[in-house]
Amino acid sequence: xxxxxxxxxxxxxxxxxxxxxxxxxxxxxxxxxxxxxxxxxxxxxxxxxxxxxxxxxxxxxxxxxxxxxxxxxxxxxxxxxxxxxxxxxxxxxxxxxxxxxxxxxxxxxxxxxxxxxxxxxxxxxxxxxxxxxxxxxxxxxxxxxxxxxxxxxxxxxxxxxxxxxxxxxxxxxxxxxxxxxxxxxxxxxxxxxxxxxxxxxxxxxxxxxxxxxxxxxxxxxxxxxxxxxxxxxxxxxxxxxxxxxxxxxxxxxxxxxxxxxxxxxxxxxxxxxxxxxxxxxxxxxxxxxxxxxxxxxxxxxxxxxxxxxxxxxxxxxxxxxxxxxxxxxxxxxxxxxxxxxxxxxxxxxxxxxxxxxxxxxxxxxxxxxxxxxxxxxxxxxxxxxxxxxxxxxxxxxxxxxxxxxxxxxxxxxxxxxxxxxxxxxxxxxxxxxxxxxxxxxxxxxxxxxxxxxxxxxxxxxxxxxxxxxxxxxxxxxxxxxxxxxxxxxxxxxxxxxxxxxxxxxx
Length: 506
Ligand code: CA
Known about the structure:
seven-stranded parallel beta sheet, Archaeosine Trna-guanine Transglycosylase, Chain: A, domain 4, alpha/beta, about 30% helix, GD_AH_C, Rossmann fold, binds calcium ion, four-stranded antiparallel beta sheet, lyase, 3 domains, 14 helices, GD_AH_second
């Protein structure tokens, strides 16, 4: 079989993507000859495109040519004008609903998790200690190191201790109309499924985010909350934290994994550092795994509003009701207005790395990003940090920033995140494991001991999306069950949590 040089996604496309760096004068499949050197993952014009003409990839108009583009030319991000984003009113819904039998069948139907009294099961057994304010973070960081060293060895059935710190809590307009978004995130993080229902909250004592804003009255007890300003000096403060942690660890140590149905599993999907291969290899492979999970009864979140905005009509077609479609439109509209208030639009999203990776603009990025949602019906749409009410595929409307999407999905209760990358990121979370999937073989060769799964062979034709989808599905269940550890956990590469706060800071 001759080596594949380019990939054309849709028959209507007038561009293809280079599988490798291609020199000028390369004869492509079909006989076309490149006029310019084409960097890997970048676009080649398959036909002459006149000034003002449509540039089509994924069967979708990415933009309009600023000048004539002869066939065989390299099309970079400077050569096209952005189209208008799709209208949000009267989007047809439910026109592309797949029946469960049309989705790929899961090859395993159970996993090993920590059952909770309510909500999804845990993938880890962790003591989570949450701060109400950043002021307490330094103390907690030191205390957690001591807990790990002095207490954790006594409790072999506990996987770890996590300090859930964040930049929210004080110096913020706590009564602003949008403050509920950040407050809900902190409140739901306290009850993350991996913390087994044990509540441990450390506050300073004078912050605006008081305990009653994140806990119901019955949970605000000396057993669960600890206020640093109540203690006389360093030693008393540390001892109080260690004593409380010890009591919680005793209870957590009694938890055991048990065989559970997939309906007890809640995971999230995210991508970051995407390139033009992400939408061909890594994201559709993750989407295939998502379809298997959904058919098996699991719940899968996908997110990142600005990265689906240009494909919103495609998502509306998969919404199961007018109500879900309306919620999707409302979340998009909220974000359009949020960006407009900041003087930008959704094209502020792509990064220099995305562009170097061949993504010309946000339309092209969105078409690739959506692929990670697979093909299942969308049963629910919710706002950042809300918890699911349904099982199945859900759009959780979070920002696309890796470091903001992560805690938002954690607050929704994900026990694991699958993270697709083109350019490479060491991203990880300590509350829940993160599996990283890269879009190119070269990325896996470069970061051989940082990237868990490569989807690069889909581009060269050596593997199918179903092959890599199956690998991702298997790794999700192995990692969720505690059988395997992704690289980020092996090294302890865990990012800070940035709680989404659209309300003013004072
Ligand atoms: Ca992201």
